[in-house]
Every structure is written in structure tokens, then in C-alpha cells.
Amino acid sequence: MRLFYVIIFLIVGLTSVLAFPGKQQRIIGGSITSIDRYPFAASLLFSWNLQQYMQSCGGTIITNRAVLSAGHCFYGDSAARWRIRVGSSWANSGGAVHNTAQIIIHPNFDYEHFDSDIAILRTATPFVYNNQVRAASIAGINYNLADNQAVWALGWGLTAVNGTASEQLRHVQIWSINQSICKSRYNELGERITENMLYC
């Protein structure tokens, strides 16, 4: 069960998870699910004008004051431009919305290559835990994901190629690929995969 949650928290937070080699490929589709099944999922809301906030990235609750996500979502943004919705299956309604107090992007984040693409958002107010809001379980440092293991990706992403983003939380089962094979496939495309990336 711990493995399940570590994979989910990484995938929820990373909006550019790639299932197969190729630039800009993403996991698309999936089936509708409920926040009751994934109470650690957070919809991260962005505003250009500091008045209207819309879902722009996904994240994973890791404590009652912190959400883990992808660094590229917040690169160059102030905390005031982001809010955190928890406890809702819907991207832009329901649940509870919290102001973001601080964005901490990994100090080695490389925007061009997405190396160390990870960030933590700290909330201004604590989350209230219940059946729809809970921190994810995180596997220990010595846990290794086996090859060809089924894992779940979830979020409010595209429902079809050239389609629109889903308003309702979706999930899809995918399988892990051997890291050496993954690196080799991306190297053939001129892409560099490091140990600080989740691509396969």
C-alpha cells in the first residue's frame, strides 16, 4: 500500500508525466473517480489577476500544511497567485480552498530539462483532515519500484488529445518501466533522464 501512495503523490504533482518517449506526451483520458478514493489529491488554482482562480496543476497533501507538486507549475510565480483546493472531486468547486503562504521550489530545479522538478506549497491555514482530506502515505527511501508494476495516475488532465481538461477527478492505471530501458528510449530521442525525474 505504501508504494501505491508514493507513486500517486509523484504522479498527481507532476503535470508532465510521460508514459512513452516523445516531447509533450502526457497521460490522457482515464475514468472518473472520487476524492473519497484519493483524499490526498489537491487541485492547485492559479490566477493571472489575483481575483479569479482556476485549476492549473495537481498536488498531493503531505502534511496538514503542505502540498507536493511539480516545480515547473510555479516557476517565477508569487505565492499570492496560487490557492489550494482540497476535499473535492471537482477541479474548480467544492471542498475547502486555502491560500498559499510559501512556494519552495527545489534549489536544483532546471526549467529547460525539468531536472529536480519538484516543489512544496505551504498553506496559510491548516487542512482539516476527514474522509476527503488526508495526507498521503510515503514509501521509505529504501523502497524500489519493481519493473512492470501497475500504478495509478490521477488528476484533472485532458480527457482526449486536443480535448479539454476534466472538471472531475480522473484516474488511469499504467505500468512502470525499467529505468535503464526508459533512459535508453529517451536517449534515442535526444532527451536526458536523470535520477531526479519520474518518467517511467
What labels would you give this structure?
single chain, Trypsin CFT-1, 200 residues, Thrombin, subunit H, 11% helix, 27% strand, serine protease, protease, three-stranded antiparallel β-sheet
Write down the Rg.
16 Å
Please write the CATH class name: Mainly Beta
Residues in helices, as a percent range: 10-25%
What is the end-to-end distance?
19 Å
- Order of strands, main sheet, comes to 2-3-4-7-6-5
What is the CATH superfamily classification? Trypsin-like serine proteases
Number of domains: 1
Taken from the alpha-carbon principal axes, the silhouette is globular
Q: N-to-C SSE series? A: HEEEEEEEEEH
Provide mean pLDDT, rounded.
86
CATH second-level architecture: Beta Barrel
Which class of secondary structure composition applies to the elements? Answer: alpha+beta
> What proportion of the residues form beta strands (DSSP E)?
25-35%
Count of distinct strands: 9
Count of helical regions: 2
Residue runs with pLDDT of under 50 for 5 or more positions? 1-25
Describe this entry's structure for a reader.
The protein is an alpha+beta fold. It has a single domain, classed as Trypsin-like serine proteases (Thrombin, subunit H). Helices cover 11% and strands 27% of the residues. The chain has helices spanning 2-13, 179-188; strands spanning 31-32, 41-46, 54-63, 66-69, 82-86, 96-105, 119-123, 150-155, 170-175. The strands form two sheets. The protein has a six-stranded antiparallel beta barrel. A three-stranded antiparallel beta sheet has the order 1-9-8. The model is unreliable at 1-25 (pLDDT under 50).
